[in-house]
Design goal:
The protein is about 45% helix and about 15% strand. It is of the alpha/beta class and about 525 residues long. The chain has two domains: about 10-335 and about 420-505, no CATH class; about 345-405. The strands form three sheets. Strands 4-3-2-1-12-13-14 form a seven-stranded mixed beta sheet. Strands 5-6-9-11-10 form a five-stranded mixed beta sheet, with helices on one face. The chain has a two-stranded antiparallel ribbon with strand order 7-8. α1 (about 40-55) runs parallel beside α4 (about 115-130) and α11 (about 320-330) runs antiparallel to α14.
Length: about 525
């Protein structure tokens, strides 16, 4: 690289959700894979390299969370040839996939990279060309927390680098330099006065971790030691329920609003909807088993360790107080104990059941009054018998219709909730004030956004996702699939999309906010 190319600009992507990709054993793509765009990604990096050469600068590529979707890696190793150190493969793991210990996460990472060689070879080439890559963890790849996983990723990237640069007198130094430019951040990226980057799941109660910086849970019964990943409710929803749905309906994760997907298949595929209902019950009981009250000395030590890591980040940024305030903006995780989980999950069904039973009792009372009034008018026996039969079966029909109307699933009938884009805007506004930055960017919601913070010369961006999705709100003018990219060049940010057909980035159109209700 030209030695003058030392000024770094930023390119930010989020929510790529790479899973197992093309499986080596079968040559087929996993039904749980959402990222099918390895070649477009390779061409984007080639375009960025060409642009860097023209303008004599380097890029810092930031993956803002959920680069790897560990939750959707459900393959398991052959128990007879399982890697050393891997916990026992139980019947639960055979059905739902491995757990999230360091050893299991390493094995899952290897499957993802094995299924996406084009993607990671392109990333290695980008590093080799002098650019930096920063990886932030999100709720689907919190497994980056384990040092063993990060180290294994470095080893695998080194393998790609050696393919690019065959051994010679200077190859070791060049490869070492490239690996030095591969960085991991535990929470966020902060560029003073300019930019704050964070995934955003901590502002979503469904996917907020109790201790995101130190996301472990004490579990004396765990087969992998006394600690395991302390997942939020949303992760259990994916692992124990939604993966099973996605195996039948690969388009399911493309719905931004999960409840809208269930509502759609209920209307269009009643038989298939039965399988959704059937899978709900094992998910419910497994999630209930996982929900634990965090008490005792060990849990206090975990919380304190989490706070220490937050303070350490604040010291690195030179913004200790502001960083602690941002940590306090984070939402409390949903369902912190079994009672809370049961009350929240069962509240809506209990209300519907009470309304259904109460309505049937009232309907029965009114129906009896009506039938006595009509049948008691002295009709002949045949007419009276006929009317009696009509009334009896009529009540059954009307009662069933009533039960269907009251108990039918609705768009709001699913316990899983995605964070709304407006909520992320509110958090971004506070962060822009606290950190005094011009740009704040999140991912997580899968909804691209560009919004000027009121009263400040600051902007909030959301980098959306590279996976297809169906958004019934139609907030964004977009083709079925596109590739949003946030560029920060010379201190100015713009939300773009990679146009793979013409081979360049172009402005991403986002509609103005609609009128308030």
């Amino acid at each position: 690289m030209n030695k003058r190319k030392t000024r770094f600009n930023y390119v930010i992507l989020s929510d790529l959700h790479l899973s197992e990709g093309r499986k080596k054993a079968t040559g087929q793509t996993s039904r749980l894979e959402s990222f099918l765009f390895d070649r477009p990604f390779e061409r984007l990096l080639a375009y960025l390299q060409k642009k860097a050469e023209q303008r004599e600068h380097l890029w810092t590529l930031v993956f803002n969370g959920d680069l790897i979707d560990f939750l959707r890696v459900t393959s398991i190793p052959d128990p007879r040839r399982a890697p050393k150190g891997l916990p026992p493969i139980t019947s639960t793991k055979q059905k739902y996939g491995l757990g999230a210990s360091a050893a299991e996460s390493k094995w899952q990472l290897e499957r993802v990279i094995e299924g996406h060689p084009v993607f990671f070879r392109a990333l290695a080439r980008f590093l080799y060309q002098g650019h930096r890559v920063v990886i932030l963890k999100g709720n689907h790849d919190v497994n980056w927390f384990w040092p063993e996983v990060r180290y294994r990723f470095m080893e695998l990237m080194e393998g790609f680098l050696r393919e690019i640069d065959p051994p010679d007198q200077g190859s070791e130094q060049r490869i070492s330099g490239a690996l030095d430019r591969l960085l991991f951040r535990s929470w966020s990226v902060y560029i003073k006065k300019l930019l704050y980057i964070e995934h955003g799941n901590q502002y979503d109660p469904t996917n907020a971790f109790q201790n995101f910086m130190y996301p472990v849970l004490v579990d004396p019964e765990s087969p992998v030691g006394s600690y395991e990943i302390d997942f939020p409710f949303g992760s259990f929803f994916i692992r124990y329920f939604f993966n099973e749905i996605e195996l039948r309906f690969p388009s399911a994760p493309h719905y931004r609003n999960v409840a809208a997907f269930f509502y759609t298949i209920r209307r269009r595929h009643l038989y298939a909807f039965w399988h959704v209902v059937k899978n709900y019950f094992p998910y419910f009981f497994r999630t209930l088993q996982k929900v634990k009250t965090r008490r005792g000395r060990k849990h206090r030590e975990i919380r304190e360790k989490n706070l220490q890591l937050i303070r350490k980040v604040g010291e690195e940024y030179g913004e200790k107080k502001a960083t602690e305030k941002i940590a306090k903006l984070q939402e409390a995780p949903a369902y912190e104990n079994k009672i809370d989980f049961l009350m929240t999950i069962l509240q809506r069904p209990a209300k519907k059941f009470a309304a259904a039973v109460g309505g049937l009792i009232l309907l029965s009372f009114l129906w009896n009054i009506l039938s006595e009034w009509i049948l008691g008018a002295g009709q002949n026996l045949v007419l009276k018998t006929t009317l009696s039969v009509i009334f009896d079966y009529g009540f059954i029909v009307v009662g069933l219709v009533w039960l269907f109307l009251v108990l039918r699933p609705t768009k709001k009938g699913v316990s899983y909730r995605e964070v709304e884009p407006d909520e992320l805007r509110k958090k971004a506004t506070r962060i822009a004030e606290m950190m005094d930055v011009r740009y704040v960017t999140f991912g997580h919601s899968h909804v691209e956004d560009a919004w000027k913070v009121p009263g400040r010369d600051s902007w909030y961006f959301n980098t959306g996702t590279w996976t297809p999705f169906i958004d019934e709100d139609k907030h964004i003018i977009r083709p079925e699939v596109h590739f949003p990219v946030l560029l920060v060049e010379d201190g100015l940010a713009r939300l773009t999309r990679w146009n793979d057909q013409v081979g360049e980035v172009e402005e991403l159109p986002i509609l103005e906010d609609g009128p308030s209700d």
